[in-house]
Amino acid sequence: MGLRYAGARVISAASTWGLKHLFHRPAANFPGKVALYVDPCVIGDARAKLERGSVVVVGTNGKTTVTNLLADVLECAGMSVVCNRTGANLDSGIATSLLHAKQADWGVFESDELWLAKVLPQLKAKYVLLLNLFRDQLDRCGEIDRIQDSIVGALASSPESILVYNADDPLCAYIAEQAACAPGREKTPSIAFGVSESMGLAQNTVTDATMCQRCSTMFTYEFRQYGQLGEYTCPNCGFSRPALNFAAENVVLESDQLSFDVVRNGANLTPNAPHRAADQDACISLHAPFNGAYMVYNLLAVGVGGQLLGCSGDKIQQAIDAFNPQNGRLETFDVAGRHVLLNLAKNPTGFNQNLKIVAQDSQPKVVAFFINDKEADGRDVSWLWDIDFEELAQSGQMQVFAGGIRGKDMQVRLKYADIAADVVDSAEELLGKMKEISASHNAYLIANYTSLPLVKSALEAAAAATADAAPAEAAPVDAAASATPAAASTTAAHENPVVIAHLFPDLLNLYGDGGNVRVLEQRLRWRGIPVEVVRVQHGDTIDLSQVDLIMMGGSPDREQRLASADVVAMRDELYEYVNDNGPLLAICGSYQMLGHEWLLDGQTVKGLGLIDMTTRRPGTSADRLTNNIALSSPLATHPVVGYENHAGRTYLGEEVRPFGQVVSSVGCGNNEQTHADGVLYKNLIGTYLHGPLLAKNPEIADHLLEEALKRHTRRSGVAHEPLSPLDDTAELSANEAMASKLGV
Ligand code: GLN
Description:
This protein is α/β, with parallel strands linked by helices. The chain has 4 domains: about 1-40; about 50-320, 3-Layer(aba) Sandwich (UDP-N-acetylmuramoyl-L-alanine:D-glutamate ligase), CATH 3.40.1190; about 330-470, Mur ligase, C-terminal domain (Protein-Tyrosine Phosphatase, Chain A); about 500-740, Rossmann fold. The chain contains 22 helices and 31 strands. Strands 2-3-1-4-5-6-9-10-11 form a 9-stranded mixed β-sheet, with helices on both faces. The longest helix is centred in the first third of the chain and has 20 residues, at about 5-20. The chain is globular, with a radius of gyration of 27 Å. Bound molecules: glutamine (GLN). Glutamine binds near residues 556 and 588.
């Protein structure tokens, strides 16, 4: 043990003492940070404290829950554990937990996906438990491929760490395949777990990754659980869900409980755990008072991890029975006699799972969403439009509130799902308003990463006041039902509707761009104009002469290439449509495809050539342009606000007009030289702006709709009045909030 390690321990102990006694703050990260500064190998040096080794839990959703539960399981089985229980999951958080700890049997640590590459080479964990990968904080992390590469690199740096992975997630299975090829890992087993039967759940609109990463072909699914999880096969190269070493079977999902069996297939999966005679084909049964398919996966991971570490099914169940995380994950409170559930949701997949829990309560209820956009949340909130709030709108009477730094964006998103939400400035304000609502209405508070602690502490204070108070005052009965949302309507079948074509939403579905279609559709419906949305999936075709408006979204490179082939196959029809003044909105990846060529991994891909422009990439994906942005555009009197996130730089030909000029001090648009964004050609708008663009820029939405109505009249003979004005207070208020944040 070197001098540096000794120094690191002293300085971290001193900073822990200082934080606790002088600043009264928890010491989750800082002591580890200073220790790492003094001794960059402090984790490697301190791992000797862990007699049997460690497990690192990674994955987009469920890390904190699985990590805590797994640590509980070990403790139930009589073992001592070091664990970063609060979710401080960078190297500094793990170093802090290790330095605070005494000698222990096991370490169980959650790690941020991108930080695994720093942590694992030092920790040399016995197991890496990989839960899932979903799109999350894309402005910080880039596309999921980058996270996958980083995890594969981490595993390569610790060749003896056994990968235990969710094989239902093709992104995790691809990591397992790649890691198996890394030098030194030939003899290291990997262990696959999954749910072997369909849970029969309704699917959500946007799914992250349904394309084979080996050969870029769309998967076929025997069944899908949620997101990209399920039993998949690539019809081209045969990449498919690996055989499951541990399978959840007999899954029963009810509104307030779940149960399933964990069946172990095959022996000799536990090289580090004591051998048990019943290893082969052993089966344990687990149950929990939770709701939600994602909890099946979390508990399955705990069941698998627990067994691998030598714990019995009884001990695993005992830990689940006693589980009371008090960390804002499915945490419940009693506030003045009202049952309040708080849960974290920070990406579309997690959010959709949360909404299913809320929607199962068909009684009148209170629902509040708190959305921040700090560094740790991701600065971009476009993803709110990838969530199916429309499902929530159909779940009965509720009063809905939107809070957090981006509460106004949330309000706009809900508005387009036909849910009227009041903006609140704080959780305290929400709790004040809740006093006016009958305590018999359950409340569901969903908060993203940095907003969660604030909401949690407000709830804790209110719950403590409830506990202290004399018998709770009777709350008013059924106050203000005025905010009851209108029932969500479905796309109307009508003899002569305006037809909006959403091209290839299964491929071009990044950053909430599909929300543009929702905005267009609702703005027609609210004006009483019949509208039909046609979603043209990969491999389908459509007769564009029967279409009044086209929208195409952005996408990751792999999907963009496949969609590009579909779009190029429609070249003649698209030329005719655009030259006949058909309105078309193309965002980011789709916008790039309109030019002569664009770049993928250093290779040139041929575009449509509809616009005289080309897209190049000066460097690797590290120099992505990611920022909030505001433009001045001839199509709008307000600043056009959005979020850009792209690697390609687009160069317009001399005669070509941009969509707008960048007016914010940050944001780049097409390229660093011109500070212009996008393109305008006839009624085509191409732009790099996500957001989605039309949500906070209603003038642009109505411009496209005016042109769609003209085309509709031309092709069907149906006459239209000029568009009637709508109440755009919420949209313009969110626009103004962003414009002023950008100093415009
Ligand atoms: N893959 C393209 C790029 O990075 C487009 C990304 C996007 O649509 N956001 O340039």
